[in-house]
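Backbone description:
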Amino acid sequence: TVPLRARKGRASYLGERSEGHEDPGAASAALLVGALADTAGRAGA
């Protein structure tokens, strides 16, 4: 999400200045999904 411009939420007020910054919600969701996938992979082994 780094190259994208925020269009929703509080970051949308920044307009062009929001480009180049990682969305913390997207980053935390990616970590959560990765941890779930790792756990599911170990449970299935």
Observations:
- The chain has one helix and no strands.
- Residues 10-44 form one domain.
- Residues 37 and 43 are 10 Å apart (CA to CA).
- Residues 24-44 form the longest helix (21 residues).
